[in-house]
Amino acid sequence: MSASQTTAGNTAESAAVRDVVPFRTAVRTWFAISLQTFGGPAGQIAVMQRALVEEKRWIGQQRFNHALSYCMLLPGPEAQQLAVYVGWLLNGTRGGLAAGTLFVLPGVVALLALSALYVAFGTTAAVTGLFAGLAPAVVVIVAQAVWRVGRRSLTHPALIALAVASFAALALFAVPFPLVVAVAALIGWLLARLAPQTLRPAAAHAADDGPPPLIADDALHAERPSRHRALRILGLGLLLWGAPLAAVAVLTGTGSVFTTQGLFFSGTALVTFGGAYAVLAYVAQQAVQHYGWLGAGEMVRGLALAETTPGPLIMVVQFVAFLGAYRDPGALNPWAAALLGALLTTWVTFVPCFLFIFLGAPYIERLRGNRSVSAALTGITAAVVGVIANLAVYFALHTWFANVDDRTWGPLHLQLPDLSTVRPTALAITCAALVMVFALKWSVLRVLGVCAVLGLAVAGVTALG
User: Residue ranges of the domains in the chain?
Assistant: First the structure.
């Protein structure tokens, strides 16, 4: 790439249409990446880094890391947003659309098929045994997420205290999740001003090895930000985001399950800081206890299905919507209702990701080194540890015990298990999963596969007995 192609004087139009790599080549690469995106955001980001930074040398490591830092500031699945951002750098708007769509498409198709199989055969002994093995594995996988995020993020006692306070606010006092996120961001900002020693700066990244990348760390100047561009993208993005929801509200009524799901998951798309694990406790609480779309045990099974499919884990909301719409179809056929609910929920969950990237990417250089933004993100990340821990406790209780009661004492809101309804099989498989994850360090898919086999084996022995 010549220096003239990357000068700051490039017009927005030329930057928008220039292809750093052939578009067809990029599409084939994004499709190949989409089939490998198992194991949560850490695994997905690792796949992109290996393919784009190390193997193809399309983008430099520091540029890749800076893009990831920007995506971490946004609500929504950071790995998918990173794909949109890098796709935009490589091939403009159409590159971002292709990368982001392909990143989630295999997971959408796979989870739709698995949701339909669950609804059709979920009560059979084989499927029951399968989920009896998967659910304990999910508990351990979420616990591993707590450990990984905590070890990396809680670098000072003040941040540990913030994580514990966030856990208590959710688990003991039922504080709304968005409020926890907002307060954590404020505390992070205050810590940076009043006690900056509590916030350790990120370690510097090593320089790239190998031939220079096509997108160097300091050479590419993409579209220039402008008020006209921002207003155009914002207007189009909001129209695309809201039009299907408005159409559903007109056709099925404002009180239908489809409108309710569309509004609810549109809201969660704006507060999904810290990845899927962070917001799932809030989604589970509302979907199970408030709306009654599915049971607590089914929420665990939905996450198990999402863990076994490629794409962001937040895709579990598709399973939630599928079951909720199937069970309350209104005037529609239950299967048509389930498909509509699932696709509408997927749409309102992921369209904002494209909007955030296309709207904010040209301003990304202005965020470089911004201490206030970094401090707020550090506070949110610390709170996310407590949020994920709350999710682990929630899943564990509903996996290990058949009955869990809600109790209220003054400001306290607790979930207490009925000890007489303990599930020995679930406890045993959980222990096995702990060994596989923490001692043997097996991959997520391998752990899920072995636990599924254990659950099927127990179901088979029980049926024979």
Answer: 106-203+226-417
Q: How many CB atoms lie under 10 A from the CB of residue 293?
A: 24
d(CA 202, CA 45): 18
* Rounded (10°) CA dihedral 293, 278, 435, 423: -30
Q: How far apart are CA 310 and CA 135, in angstroms?
A: 18
Q: Read off the pLDDT band of 309 (50, 70, 90).
A: confident
pLDDT one-digit tens code per residue, 360-385: 888 876 666 677 877 887 888 788 88
Is pLDDT larger for residue 123 or for residue 113? 113
Q: Is the pLDDT of residue 16 over 60?
A: no
String of DSSP letters for 183-247: HHHHHHHHHHHH-GGGSPPPPPPPPP-SSPPSB-TTT---PPP-HHHHHHHHHHHHHHHHHHHHH
Instruction: Give the CA distances from residue 460 to residues 241, 337, 456, 465, in Å, rounded to whole numbers and listed in that order.
Output: 47, 34, 6, 9
Q: Could you give the CA distance from residue 322 to residue 343 in angstroms, rounded to a whole number?
A: 9
Q: pLDDT-based confidence at 66, cuts 50/70/90?
A: confident
The whole model's pTM is what? Answer: 0.74
Burial 114-144 (b: 16+ CB within 10 A, else e): bbbebbeeeeeeebbbbbbbbbbbbbbbbbb
Terminal Cα distance for the chain, rounded: 70
The neighbouring-strand residues paired with 409 are 412
The amino acid at residue 87 is: G
Angle 77-81-84 from CA coordinates, rounded to 5°: 150
- Among residues 15, 361, 83, 4, which one has the least CA distance to residue 221? 15
